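ok so heres the complex, two chains, lmk if somethin looks off
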Amino acid sequence: MRKSFDDIILLFPNTICIEELEKIPATQPFSNDVVEFLNALSQELSKDPKIRNYPDVATFAFFCRKANILQIKKRYVSEETIRLGRGIVFHVTPSNVPVNFAYSLLCGILSGNVNIVRVPSKDFEQVTIICNAITRIASNTVYQNCANRIVIVKYDRNSSATSLFSSFCDVRVIWGGDETIAQIRKSSIPARSFDVTFADRYSLCIINADQYIKEQNHEAVALGFYNDTYLFDQNACTSPHLVVWLGTKEIVYKAKKVFWNKLYNIVKQKYGPIQPIIVVDKLTALYNQAVNSDGVHKTTSNDNLLWLVDIDILSPQIEDFRCSSGYFSEYHANSLLEVATIINRKYQTLAYYGFNKMELSNFVKNNNLPGIDRIVPIGRTTDFSVIWDGFDLIRTLTRCCNIIAK
Amino acid sequence: MEISEILDIPPYSLNKVDKEQILSPYLTNLSRHHYKHCTPFRKMMDSVGFDTQKEYHYADLPFLPVRLFKMFDLYSVPQNEIIKTMISSGTSGQSVSRIFLDRDTSAAQTKTLTQIVSSFIGTQRLPMMIIDSESIIKDRNLFSARGAGILGFSIFGSKRMYALNEQMQLNIEQLQGFTEQHKEKRIFMFGFTFMIYQHFYKELARSSIKLDLSNAVLIHGGGWKNLISEAVTPDVFRKKLNDVCRLNQVHDYYGMVEQTGTIYMECEYGHLHAPAFSDVIIRRAHDFSIADAGEKGIIQVLSILPKSYPGHSLLTEDAGVLLGEDNCACGRLGKYFKIAGRLKNAEIRGCGDTYAEKF
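and the predicted structre for the whole thing:
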C-alpha cells in the first residue's frame, strides 16, 4: 500500500519498518531511559577528537549531559497532570544549520515520542559525527529502548518521502522559513495531527549606553555580539538586524564608537573573505532602505565587512530592510516605548545589554507586545532552549491526560 | 563638452588622461541631473553622502547595483517623454529590469552603437544575416533585450535575412540563397551567442550543408552563461563556426540593456575594449577599491548615455579582469578586459532553507 522509499537515505538505523514504528508506545517525558541515552551520547561525542573543529557539536554534547537534562526536568515534574508523548514526531530540519536537527530530535525524545528526522540533503560533517555517535551507543542493549525511537533520514527535495512521513505523524515540526513551511504543508497530515512551525523571524538588540560605557570588558561583549550575528552570517532567525541605543546623546555617541570598533576588530580577524555577491546585496539593501524610508545614512566604513546604517526614524517597515553578513541599522531611542511601537508577530529574539529583568518584563507586559519570544543577553541569542520561538517544545510535543478524582 | 561633441570622438582614440578629463565632469553632471530629477536616486545618493557641489573623478561617483532596476521604476524625465521601455530578458519567474528611454537618450544610443560598430565593420551598410527568428521583434511595444539588440544592429544591414524560423529551425533555403547571392560582398552576421551555438552551429554540424561564409563578419553578444555547461569557450566557439561555415571574423561584445549603446567590443586579440564614451572599473569585493590589472573583481560600468534614467554608473553582477589600458596590441586606446563569469550565488549559513532572492 505504502509507496516504496527507495530514494530515502537512512542515516540511522540501517533498516526501518514503518508499521513497527507505529507500534512503539509513546512514554512519559524525561524517562530514565532517555536521560541515560542522552548522557551516553554526550560522553560519546566528547570522546570524538573531531568535535574540536565543531564547537556547535561540542555545545550540543554539553547540552545533553545528565546534569543539564535533570535541571530542565525539574521545571516539568511538579505538574499534577499526566503527560505522555504524542506518538510519532516528524521533524523537517533546516538546510543551513547543521546541528539544529539534533536539538529538534532531543526535544522529541525527551518528550517521549518516536522521531523521524529529516536532515539537510547537503553533506555536513557535524551530521555525520552525531549520527555515528548514535549508531555506536545504540549497539549497547541498555540504550536500545531509546535508540528504537530514532530514525534519521535524508532525501531530495522532490522525493515523495515528505508525503509518506506526513501521512502518519502525530506532530510535524517544520524548521526553515516561510517558503519551506508552505512547501511541506502541501503534504497533508492526519486529522488530529498538527504542525509546529518555525517561520521567518526578525530579531533586534537594545543597548543601554549609560551602562555599557561602564562595562569593564568591552571585548567580551563584542565577541558575544559577533557570535550572535556573524557566526551564522547574520542569517539565523536569532541574529539582530537592528540595534537600538538608549541614553543621553553624548554617551550614546561614545558607546557606539567603542561597540562597533571592538566588533570590527573581531570581524577583521575572524570573518571573511566576504563573498562578492554579498556586497552587491548590501548595497542593494541600503538603497532599497533609502528609497523606502527617510533619514537613512550609511556610516563611513573601512570596508564592506561591517556596514552601519543610521536611521532618524524608527518605522514598522524596518524589518524589510535587512541583509546578511554584517548589515545593521541603528537608532537612538528616547525610551523603550518607542521600540514597542514597531514590534509585531514576526519579532523573535531581543538581545540586550544593561537592562534588568524587571525593566524587560515590564517592557513586554505593559506594552502587550504581539511579538518577541525570547529576551537574552548579548552573546546568548543562539543558545538552545526547549522553549523556542514561543513554544514550550516539551509541552507541545506531549498530550495531557486529565484525571478527576471523585 | 556636450554629448554630441563627445560622441563625435573616434571610439578608441582617447588615452587615460584625456578620457578622465572629458568623462569626469560629464558623469558628475549626470549624477547631479539624476539627483535633481529622480527622487529615488536622490534618496539613494543622500544615504551615501553624495555632494552635489563637489567635482568628482568618475571613479569616485556612487554606483547603483543593476538589480535596482528590477525593484524600482527609475527615470529622470517627465513620464510623457518616455518613448520606449526596454526590459531585460529575465528567465521565467524572475523579475525583469525596466529601462525608460526618451527621444534624446534613444537617439544617442543609436549614434554610439553606430560609431563603435562601424569602426569594426566599416560605415557602409552590408547584407545582414540575423541568427534569430523574426518573431522576436514583432512586438514593438515592449522591447526585450534580444529584440532591441537585433533592431539596434539592424541599422548596419542593407538587406536583412533571418536565419531561423519561428520554431527556431534553420531556414536552409533562404540561408543558401542569401549566401550565394552575396558571395562577392561582405556579409554582416549578428546574433546572440547561445542562439548561434544552439540553433545555427549545431544544426549545420548535424546536417551535411556546407556554407561558405568566409567573407562574413559575425558580431555576437549576450554572454556565455548557458554555454559554460557545454564547455564551449570563445576559442572553441570560433573554431566550430569556422568548421561548419568557414567563418573567420568573429567579434563578441559585452553589453547590457541597462547601458544600451556603449558596448564593449572584442578586438582581434580577443580582448573587450572600452570606448571613449564609457568605461569599466573592476572593484574588489572587500572594500570596493579598484583592483589591479590581472586581479578578478566585480565589474562597474559607466556610460555617458543614460540621461532619461539614472543608469550612468552601475555595479553589475559580473566578474571581470582588467588586462591593460592604452596598450593593447590591436592599437585601440582605452581599457581592455575580459569577463570572468557571473558572481556566484552566496552560500551562507543561517536558518533559511533556501537562499532565495530576497528582493
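quick notes: Residues 109-254 of chain B form a domain with the Rossmann fold fold (CATH 3.40.50). thats all i got rn
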